[in-house]
Amino acid sequence: MHFDIAEPFNSTGDPMFVTAAFAQEAGSANAGSAFAQFIPLILIFAIMYFLLIRPQQKKAKDHRAMVDALRRGDQVVTSGGIVGKVIKVQEDNIVEVEIAEGVKVKVIKGTIGQVLNKTEPAAT
User: Fold this and answer.
1) At CA 59, angle to CA 53 and CA 62, rounded to 5?
2) pLDDT tens digits, the chain, 124 residues: what are they?
């Protein structure tokens, strides 16, 4: 059997056109279920929000609070793995950390990954 793609007939010789009544009927049946096709997409977005986006926002908020609470005397670990003691907290987002006796390093507050020992504020 040889089929020519350019001819609009099927193997029995009948024309392969869809009648207007059949096309109209199929369109009206799908119009009611258009919203139903978006339900899985909406569910996937909701699952992604609750499993990925929301926990990440909470983690970022907790890290921001930890960085804002840094004070002199706290023992910290930077994101590079350097352990040191906070010597000075500057206003312009910089912390001075002593990593060995007499060795001081200035780091960005956002690079502080963890606070190991929190110092208590002085009683007044």
Assistant:
1) 140
2) 555 555 555 666 665 555 555 555 555 555 558 888 899 999 999 999 999 999 999 999 999 999 999 999 999 999 999 999 999 999 889 999 999 999 999 999 999 999 998 877 655 5
Instruction: Give me the number of domains the chain comprises.
Output: 2
**In terms of residue numbers, what domain contains 58?**
20-65
Task: Output the DSSP codes for 59-77.
Answer: HHHHHHHHHHT--TT-EEE
One domain, residues 59 and 91:
no
